């Protein structure tokens, strides 16, 4: 494996805005070059020469001009018109200073199924390109009328046999059709002129729609890009790794964070390919703490709830309005810093890293710079970075940060409830940031994404994806909506929760009832259905029902969980008990919980 870093390129079609917006974002994120989409050029008020200058000023090259469509295998009069059109585009390319044009396989009704004709005409085009010092990269679109596999495009390029004609490989077109990327190894590297990369979720749909709306950056979908790119590199291909992602969300998102997300995807891919990129992600021992940002009103309610859940207020921060709450090594911080009335939200998460400084270096290399921080002279030097949803993520050691708190008298507390740690933190992601968030946690923290699940919930379709470290001690559950969320205002907007691992949820439920804790009431219909579906032991069912405990099971084990009501605008707590090897999150119960939260909200006024 070469240790020379590949050139990193992004197609302008990936990003939102005008060409100027896109170029600025690509440059700021550290890309070396762009694939210039014709539409972006045509809509720009800048001349090609000015765009060339703009790119040069930004430190960007233009690596590819694209696309040139419907060129090959046409009748003579159409060919004449196509060659004339090509010469005009070569003029533009000359002014842009780009020497490679992408020709995608035809979808034209004028074209015929004739490889020899296609090869002859592409050779004629390559001749004209060569006369101007340019080259042509031929790409098989997965929906090309006759040529829709890379093997077929390679047969045509080989038949044309012209030094200025080569292939553009696009991972989407190959992998969406279930193509075998191993045959790429048989293509000489010098005939691979360009490599476009896109990931995608596994969807069973028309391939053109899939490609134009649902492509993702590498590492965000389910394609095996490391193997694909490994095959390409094995040919000796030394050109750019270029992202070409058509995606409805990225097309309307702020291009600056989108370009950072794109760059992160490439760095992770390079790491998977064996390029030296960054320090490997250190192992994480667990969640060190979760910090809630509250105002006085919600803060008091959260404090009451934590008390009922068996936590004790044990510390007060030396310089900030932050309380430390603990139960058997499980830690929650309450930070009174919100000026929004009755608000509570997760402001920060902390993971315990075997090497916090190395975690911070890795985060930086993955495009998540360490946040500036003010601290008192004696206080712990905690590095933190910002997740895509704005949550601050801290890297902690085993507990030196605890000395930032002075002990306070915990006062009367009803006593522990068998909570042993933070099982997971659930974060609703803003619509634009769902795929970015999973990639962030994967690349920055080394958490592995689990498969995406989707379910119908009272306020719309929800997508859910957990990310988890190999030992299962750090888990985050990310949720988001499939389409932008309606504005009719469900009672709980973008809920977040902290799920505490509990030794015995049924016993906890009994204690919570005695303590008069604000446990969320689950309706009888749910238990009737549980009985119908799972035929649970009647005693267990009765206990679940009495305690408003939710239940799930899979082939590995069982999951008992219960929720509190929502405090402030969006926070609730969950107690969870994993029995056997159950590794899910009770997703089937989420719609029931959401409806219950709305009922509770309306009842509370
Ligand atoms: O969807 C398209 O038309 C299109 C155009 C150019 C490409 O490189 C591609 O992969 C798809
Ligand atoms: Mg392509």
Number of helices: 17
Shape: elongated
Helix content: 25-40%
Radius of gyration: 28 Å
What is the CATH fold-level name of the largest domain?
2,3-Dihydroxybiphenyl 1,2-Dioxygenase, domain 1
Assess the beta-strand content as a share of residues.
25-35%
**Number of DSSP E strands:** 25
Q: What's the CATH class label of the largest domain?
A: Alpha Beta
What would CATH call the architecture of the largest domain? Roll
Oligomerization category of the chains in this entry: single chain
How many angstroms separate the termini?
Answer: 63 Å
CATH homologous superfamily grouping of the largest domain: 2,3-Dihydroxybiphenyl 1,2-Dioxygenase, domain 1
Average predicted confidence as pLDDT: 95
* pLDDT < 50 runs, ≥5 residues: none
Word description of this protein:
By secondary structure, the chain is an alpha/beta fold. It has two domains: 8-273, TIM Barrel (Alpha-Beta Barrel); 284-604, 2,3-Dihydroxybiphenyl 1,2-Dioxygenase, domain 1 (Roll). It has 17 helices and 25 strands. The strands form three sheets. Strands 17, 18, 19, 20, 21, 22, 23, 24 and 25 form a nine-stranded mixed sheet that branches. Strand 20 (460-468) and strand 21 form a beta hairpin. The longest helix has 21 residues, at 76-96. The mean pLDDT is 95. Residues 139, 170, 196, 244 line the site of magnesium ion.
């Amino acid at each position: 494996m070469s240790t020379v870093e590949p050139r990193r390129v992004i197609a302008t079609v990936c990003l939102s805005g005008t060409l100027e917006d896109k170029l600025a974002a690509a440059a700021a994120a550290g890309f070396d070059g762009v694939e210039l989409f014709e539409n972006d050029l045509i809509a720009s008020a800048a001349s090609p020469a000015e765009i060339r200058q703009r790119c040069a000023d930004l430190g960007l090259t233009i690596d590819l001009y694209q696309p040139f469509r419907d060129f090959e295998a046409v009748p003579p009069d159409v060919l004449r018109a196509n060659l004339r059109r090509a010469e005009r585009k070569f003029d533009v390319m000359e002014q842009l200073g780009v020497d490679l044009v992408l020709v995608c396989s035809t979808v034209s009704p004028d074209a015929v199924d004739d490889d020899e004709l296609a090869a002859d005409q592409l050779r004629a085009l390559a001749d004209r390109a060569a006369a101007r010092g340019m080259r042509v990269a031929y790409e098989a679109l997965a929906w090309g009328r006759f040529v829709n596999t890379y093997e077929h495009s390679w047969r045509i390029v080989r038949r044309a046999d012209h030094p200025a004609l080569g292939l553009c490989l696009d991972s989407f077109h190959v992998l969406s059709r279930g193509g075998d990327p191993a045959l790429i190894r048989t293509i000489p590297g010098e005939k691979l002129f360009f490599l476009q990369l896109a990931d995608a979720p596994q969807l069973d749909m028309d391939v053109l729609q899939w490609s134009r709306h649902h492509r993702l950056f590498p590492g965000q979908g389910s394609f095996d890009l490391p193997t694909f790119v490994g095959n390409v590199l094995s040919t000796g291909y030394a050109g750019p790794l270029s992202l070409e992602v058509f995606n409805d969300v990225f097309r309307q998102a702020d291009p600056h964070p989108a370009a950072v997300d794109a760059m992160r995807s490439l760095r992770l891919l390079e790491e998977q390919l064996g390029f030296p990129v960054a320090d490997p992600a250190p192992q994480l021992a667990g969640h060190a703490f979760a910090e809630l940002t509250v105002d006085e009103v919600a803060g008091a309610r959260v404090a009451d709830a934590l008390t009922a859940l068996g936590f004790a207020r044990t510390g007060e921060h030396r310089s900030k309005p932050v309380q430390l709450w603990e139960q058997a090594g499980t830690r929650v911080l309450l930070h009174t810093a919100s000026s929004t009335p009755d608000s509570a939200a997760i402001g920060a998460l902390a993971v315990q890293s075997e090497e916090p400084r190395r975690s911070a270096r890795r985060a930086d290399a993955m495009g998540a710079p360490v946040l500036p921080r003010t601290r008192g002279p004696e206080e712990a030097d905690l590095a933190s970075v910002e997740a895509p949803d704005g949550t601050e993520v801290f890297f902690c050691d085993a507990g030196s940060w605890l000395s930032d708190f002075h002990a306070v008298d915990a006062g009367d507390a009803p006593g522990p409830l068998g909570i042993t740690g933070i099982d997971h933190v659930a974060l609703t992601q803003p619509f634009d940031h769902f795929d970015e968030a999973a990639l962030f946690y994967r690349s920055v923290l080394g958490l592995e994404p689990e498969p995406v699940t989707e379910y119908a919930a009272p306020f719309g379709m929800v997508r859910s994806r957990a990310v988890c470290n190999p030992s299962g001690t750090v888990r985050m559950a990310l949720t988001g909506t499939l389409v932008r969320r309606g504005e009719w205002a469900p009672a709980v907007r973008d809920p977040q929760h902290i799920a505490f691992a509990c030794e015995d949820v049924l016993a906890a439920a009994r204690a919570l009832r005695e303590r008069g804790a604000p446990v969320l009431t689950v309706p009888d219909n749910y238990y009737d259905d549980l009985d119908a579906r799972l035929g649970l032991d009647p005693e267990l069912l009765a206990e679940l029902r009495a305690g408003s405990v939710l239940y799930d099971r899979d082939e590995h084990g069982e999951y008992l969980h219960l929720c509190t009501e929502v405090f402030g605008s969006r926070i609730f707590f969950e107690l969870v008990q994993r029995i056997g090897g159950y590794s899910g999150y009770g997703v089937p119960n989420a719609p029931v919980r959401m409806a219950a939260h709305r009922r509770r909200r309306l009842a509370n006024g």
